[in-house]
Design a protein that fits this description.
The chain is an alpha+beta fold and 671 residues long. It is built from 22 helices and 11 strands. β8 and β9 form a beta hairpin.
Length: 671
């Protein structure tokens, strides 16, 4: 339950070996560099670092571009699931560095950007031409060359107008009366149920204003003919289709080229990305220091247990550097690193999901682990389900090299599933009531009956009492942790008044209830009442200590007793352990009943029964596992953590060789 002891160190190193030394510390993976005031000062060495930093950022931007561009064309895809499961190649840092060819990568990126430019141009032009296709299709029935409607000839102009069908005859009549025989028109083919008529009109250019006035008077809309249309509409359609086909072929050719280099390019980008990410982290840590013309001065946090390892690593450079362990700056808080036994470390991701413990505070991981495992087993509540899930999770743990956090999560689930097997055996739940429901499983009945100690379906009150008892124990345990924490921090009065008073009061009330129910001899009633009264007096006397007058102190103290309803609600919240456990068993029984009902159907009954059994229990496992995990976790976060946990710390984030696409071997040497 302890947090790792942290210490802070300061190192001054000559710039000639600075990069190499930081690489060694990065390979250790246990030093978190601290940003120092004045680290933005520019020396010649710092300016060079900033230049390298900018170059690497640009290279990583190119890496992201290559991955985005080539991923759709990759044939041997490496998915995020494979990375999560650890199915990625292992490589040493020296080998990784040897595979990086910056100039070759830059040349590849330049070629790729040129291909992207071509594809963009092809797609833009193709999109433009397809727009022209729709316009040419609208004008398809015009029998004149479209050039007459764009530039016209020396004497003749043309225009295409759309007008309401109800006004079409009037427009033609006015054109005839206004222009006489010096115009020609053609009504285009109707466009479905369109309420407009479209006319192609040829006229003398000197009559253009008359045509415009007549069309404006009748609210006719002019349809623009693209300037590049000079042939007939049919000829333009054919020309555009040929151009679109050519562009699509050119685009397909570029795509083929991309597909041809995708696997090689993706592999190169991943290798370069991993290596340059390592260098980026290294340089980012280096620029956190205080520079002079010849020396870098860095401060960093590390676990105290790593101090000897750090000293040994930097020993070859002692003639070029000075190293000292220092204290934290004023108001500086050390980062938090969880340190738990192997059996409980799997629960660390749950602790960090809630928040990082404050340094010097309480790490709740080992404290909540037993409760969480038991609660998860009770909520899942079925031995058969537990065996199935344990087998599946065990397969992933053995078969794959999972990411550290995911591995811890799977181990935590596996322990919970083993608890579910135990709890399911105690309550007699094996895939619901499968053992007693199906005759062919009757040989297992003696074993089931021998292991079963509780029958929650017929006696739910016993399991309810067990659930509430576990809740009361965990709540009192949380108060004891807060009591110890206050006592250790020198706040002994607060420990006795705030936690001690409630512990005495709640335990006294519990003993009163048990003794009055007859569960223990009646002779304990009086001592139980005295205990509860003593706790109440402590609370009344101390909970108003922040008030300025006696009346206020007494009133606040008395009113504090009302908080007992909050503790009662917290305890009752643990009844969900009964509800979810019974829910798993009940759903399993319903699935088995449905399977038994259809098994007698001629020909297909057995197949239907097997399908209902398999699919039904698979669905039940998925739903109940989700509910069991969420509700077990809620009990820790709300009912337990709220009693003592201070989650205002910050994570320890050391400089390390972090990669995304390859698993870096532990024995790698810094480059």
């Amino acid at each position: 339950m302890a947090l790792a002891e942290m210490c802070k160190a300061r190192i001054a190193v000559h710039k000639s070996v600075a990069y190499e030394l930081v690489g060694k510390l990065q390979a250790l993976g246990c030093c978190e560099f601290v940003e120092q005031e004045g680290s933005t000062l520019d020396s010649r060495a710092m300016l060079q670092l900033h230049a390298n930093q900018h170059e690497i950022e640009e290279l990583l931007s190119d890496v992201r571009f290559v991955l985005r561009m080539l991923e759709p064309f990759e044939t041997e895809k490496e998915g995020s699931l494979a990375r999560m499961l650890g199915d990625i190649p292992a490589i040493g840092l020296s080998e990784l560095a040897s595979k990086v060819d910056k100039e070759r990568f830059k040349s590849f990126v330049a070629d790729l950007r040129e291909k992207e430019r071509k594809m963009t141009e092809y797609r833009a032009e193709s999109s433009r031409l397809k727009g022209l296709l729709s316009q040419a299709a609208l004008l398809k029935s015009i029998k004149y060359p479209l050039e007459l409607f764009t530039t016209g000839s020396e004497m003749i102009g043309g225009a295409v107008y759309s007008v309401l069908k109800s006004s079409a005859a009037e427009m033609i009549s006015k054109l005839k009366s206004g222009l006489g025989d010096f115009f020609e028109f053609q009504e285009l083919e109707p466009n479905g149920k369109d309420s407009f008529s479209i006319f192609a009109i040829l006229y003398r250019k000197e009559d253009q204003e008359k045509v415009q006035d007549i069309c404006t008077e009748l609210s006719a809309n002019r349809i623009d003919v693209p300037k590049e249309f000079i042939l007939t509409a049919d000829e333009e359609l054919e020309r555009i289709k040929v151009s679109v086909d050519r562009l699509e072929k050119d685009e397909a050719s570029v795509c083929s080229e991309l597909a041809g280099c995708a696997d090689e390019g993706m592999a190169m980008a991943r290798t370069c990305g991993d290596y340059w990410t390592i260098l980026k982290d290294r340089i980012n840590s280096m620029v956190s220091g205080l520079p002079t013309e010849d020396v870098f001065i860095w401060s960093f946090w590390m676990p105290e247990v790593c101090l000897a390892k750090v000293k040994k690593t930097i020993e070859p450079y002692e003639s070029m550097m000075e190293f000292a362990v220092i204290g934290p700056d004023e108001n500086e808080e050390a980062p938090t690193l969880l340190k738990n036994a192997s059996w409980s470390s799997s629960v660390e991701p749950l602790t960090l999901m809630f928040g990082t413990p404050s340094y010097g505070g309480v790490d709740p991981t080992s404290l909540m682990a037993p409760f969480f495992f038991v609660f998860l087993g009770m909520c899942f509540g079925d031995a058969g389900y537990g065996l199935v899930m344990s087998g599946i999770i065990g397969y992933f743990l053995i078969r794959h090299r999972l990411q550290p956090t995911l591995r811890k999560f799977f181990i935590m689930l596996n322990i919970g599933m083993l608890c579910s097997v135990i709890f399911g055996a105690i309550t007699g739940s094996w895939f619901g009531d499968s053992v007693s429901a199906f005759p062919f499983m009757s040989p297992l009945l003696p074993l089931k009956n021998a292991l079963q100690l509780l029958d929650p379906m017929n006696d739910p009150m016993t399991l309810l009492m067990i659930s509430l008892a576990l809740g009361f124990i965990q709540i009192i345990f949380g108060l004891l942790i807060a009591f110890r924490n206050n006592w250790k921090n020198g706040e002994r009065f607060a420990a006795c008044a705030d936690q001690g008073g409630w512990i005495v009061f709640l335990v006294g009330l519990l003993l009163v209830g048990i003794s009055m129910s007859g569960a223990i001899p009646g002779m304990y009633i009086i001592p139980s009442k005295i205990t509860a009264a003593a706790g109440a007096l402590i609370l009344v006397a101390t909970q108003g200590r922040g008030r300025n007058n006696i009346a206020g102190k007494i009133f606040s103290g008395v009113m504090s007793l009302y908080n007992v309803t909050g503790y009662l609600g917290d305890v009752l919240s643990y009844s969900r352990l009964l509800a979810l456990g019974l829910g798993s068993a009940a759903v399993g029984m319903v699935i088995n009943l449905l399977a038994k009902l259809v098994v007698g159907v001629p020909y297909v009954g057995l197949i239907l029964a097997i399908l209902i059994f398999v699919l039904g229990h698979t669905f039940s496992i998925a739903v109940n596992l989700l509910g069991a995990f969420i509700h077990s976790l809620r009990l820790q976060y709300v009912e337990f953590f709220g009693k003592f946990y201070d989650a205002n710390g910050r994570d320890f984030t050391p400089l390390r060789n972090s990669t995304m696409f390859a698993r870096l071997e532990e024995d790698s040497a810094a480059q």
